[in-house]
Amino acid sequence: MSQKFQELIESERPVLIDFFATWCQPCKVQSSVLTTVKEKIGEGARIVKIDIDQYPAIASQYGVRGVPTLAVFKRGELLYKESGVHDVNRLTQLLEQYI
């Protein structure tokens, strides 16, 4: 997964990574928000979910201490990272500034 993850974040298109856990209630809320964000931004950015229990090395590499944590990458550069549930408008605006 590490090599694949590296290729993913090297994209010219912004990539929003949702670090989540299946047991996390706020993560379920964030997931439905991300569905709406995807509808709004279309192909402008990718949204990828990473389960921290399945890929603890990646979560650790990027300092994920709580879930949900959202991170935005473009061309391999970490442009944004913050924990907590984000709303649709905030995420849409965030991604649009990197598209």
TrEMBL record:
Species name: Chryseobacterium formosus
Family per record: Belongs to the thioredoxin family.
Name the UniProt record assigns to this protein: Thioredoxin family protein
UniProt keywords, alphabetically: Disulfide bond, Electron transport, Redox-active center, Transport
Domain called Thioredoxin: residue spans: 1-99
InterPro entries membership: Thioredoxin, Thioredoxin-like_sf, Thioredoxin_domain
